[in-house]
């Protein structure tokens, strides 16, 4: 695989995985909902305007529980201007926008609510938590971190919240805080080498190679010869373009554990980048023999075969990649190229159309 293509695929995979992990971490804000209209009636029920405000909040509460988030917005959108000092409408609007994944609007309303709500109240705590989640989804880590720290402090049993905080520490480059948080989630001693290696693995997935490398070095200081450490360092060296060192480290890992399919795949990528296509193909075949679900290995192996003009073998190999992962843009695009080379123009156009549709869907 060409270096640029490898890095492009890696970035796409990281982006897809990041979105998926965020979705899991904040999947259901409805579990946090608490009623606020009683507070409003008690505090501000002296005028008809306030009575109407309380009535609209009651209606919004029902709409929110029913999942009618657009209805909540329509019901309450005028109230922040009419009663600028009241937090309740802003709070409900923030929740509704959050559920609609309009995170910028959620941040705007929840930030205003936070300034107006009584600190320590149920409403304030909910605002802290959901505002932290909105910043998290917007990748505004610096704003998310202090809010999620507060929320995790009063909800230590919530693993999804703890995970979001740990990932925020990770993206802030706060290695020690991330390590301690992940160690708690995965129930390992935060000072054990496994905690350092675990955090390094998660940092690698987020493409934070330098932080991951520092953690692995610390882990090796605690336990020389730590299983998997050479593999991770090899992956980091590959991402940094140091293919010779990557090859050395990956071979070291495989000498210790020849059953590591991911290491065989990474060695195949590395050898391909070094121009050693025959050796790369052998490494990729071993990755596939150990794990027949590695679609990336099939794709890279098919590219090597195609470059060698072994088109029939390339076609069979990329077809297997598509069977393993029908949503792989790279596999369908490569299949299209192979069909064109073999003069099967209509099939090539069909595969290209599928690839372009997958790419459009990935951008949405």
Descriptive account of the structure:
The protein has 364 residues and is mainly alpha-helical. The chain folds into 4 domains: 1-25 and 153-221, no CATH class; 33-138, Serine Threonine Protein Phosphatase 5, Tetratricopeptide repeat; 227-291, Tetratricopeptide repeat domain (Serine Threonine Protein Phosphatase 5, Tetratricopeptide repeat); 293-364, Serine Threonine Protein Phosphatase 5, Tetratricopeptide repeat (Alpha Horseshoe). 77% of the residues lie in helices and 0% in strands. The protein is built from 21 helices and no strands.
Q: How is this structure best summarized?
A:
With 364 residues, the chain is mostly helical. The chain has helices at 3-25, 37-44, 48-65, 69-76, 79-82, 88-99, 103-116, 122-137, 141-154, 159-172, 175-185, 193-205, 209-222, 229-239, 243-256, 261-273, 277-290, 295-307, 311-324, 329-341, 345-363.
Counting H and I runs of at least 4 residues, what is the number of helices? 21
Q: Under CATH, the topology of the largest domain is which? A: Serine Threonine Protein Phosphatase 5, Tetratricopeptide repeat
Contiguous low-pLDDT stretches (5 residues minimum) are: 1-21, 23-45
Computed Rg:
26 Å
Range of strand content: under 5%
């Amino acid at each position: 695989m060409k270096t640029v293509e490898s890095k492009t695929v890696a970035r796409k995979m990281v982006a897809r995985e990041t979105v998926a992990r965020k979705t899991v971490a904040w999947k259901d804000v409805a579990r946090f909902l608490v009623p606020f209209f009683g507070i409003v009636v008690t505090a501000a029920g002296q005028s008809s305007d306030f009575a109407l405000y309380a009535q609209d909040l009651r209606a919004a509460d029902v709409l929110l529980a029913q999942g009618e988030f657009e209805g909540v917005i329509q019901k309450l959108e005028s109230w922040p201007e009419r009663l600028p000092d009241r937090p309740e409408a802003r709070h409900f609007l923030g929740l509704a926008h959050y559920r609609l994944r309009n995170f910028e609007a959620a941040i705007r309303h929840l930030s205003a609510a936070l300034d107006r709500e009584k600190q320590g109240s149920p409403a304030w705590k909910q605002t802290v938590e959901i505002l932290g989640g909105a910043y998290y989804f917007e990748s505004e880590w610096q704003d998310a971190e202090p809010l999620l720290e507060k929320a995790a402090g009063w909800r230590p049993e919530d693993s999804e919240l703890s995970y979001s905080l740990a990932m925020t520490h990770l993206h802030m480059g706060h290695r020690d805080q991330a390590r301690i948080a992940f160690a708690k989630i995965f129930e390992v001693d935060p000072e054990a080498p496994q905690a350092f290696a675990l955090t390094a693995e998660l940092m690698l997935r987020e493409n934070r190679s330098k932080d991951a490398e520092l953690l692995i070095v610390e882990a090796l200081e605690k336990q020389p010869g730590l299983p998997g450490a050479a593999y991770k360092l090899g992956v980091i060296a590959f991402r940094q373009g140091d293919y010779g060192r990557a090859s050395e480290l990956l071979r070291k890992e495989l000498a210790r554990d020849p059953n590591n399919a991911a290491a065989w795949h990474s060695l195949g990528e590395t050898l391909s980048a070094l121009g050693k296509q025959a050796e790369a193909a052998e490494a990729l075949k071993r990755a596939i023999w150990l794990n027949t679900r590695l679609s990336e290995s099939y794709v890279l192996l098919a590219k090597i075969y195609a470059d060698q003009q072994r088109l029939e073998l390339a076609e069979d190999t990329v077809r297997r990649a598509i069977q393993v992962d029908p949503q792989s843009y790279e596999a369908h695009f490569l299949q299209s190229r192979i069909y064109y080379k073999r003069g099967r123009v209509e099939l090539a156009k069909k595969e290209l159309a599928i690839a372009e549709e997958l790419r459009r869907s990935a951008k949405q």
